Automatic annotation (TrEMBL):
InterPro entries per UniProt: YjiS-like (IPR009506)
Keyword annotations from UniProtKB, A to Z: Membrane, Transmembrane, Transmembrane helix
Protein name: Uncharacterized protein YjiS (DUF1127 family)
Membrane-spanning intervals of the chain: 18-36
Ranges where the YjiS-like domain occurs: 36-65
Amino acid sequence: MTTFETFTPHARPSRGRTIVLIVAQVATALVTRVRIWKNRRSVARLLDWDARMLSDIGLTHGDVYSALSTRADEDASVQLSMRSLERRYATQAQAKDRLVHARELRGSSARYQRKA
């Protein structure tokens, strides 16, 4: 049994369209690389800040060094924002745990107070 494939002009992309798609993909990759490179330079400038200034935005020097130690094709600014968010959520969770623990302590101490 023999089968034949037929293509309509619309089903098969033209050479011009293929070239345009390839050029668009290369341009997108290039723009992405430049953006990552600029963001890494901005992150590296954070090393000039002192610890107090970094703590105001929820970071440490170790966070900056860690973000810069990632692969060159990864965006260091994304790594920094993730670390800042993790630290913020951890601090909020610890504060919530302390409040719950304080309520438990107040409730248990009320049992042991003398009644007048």
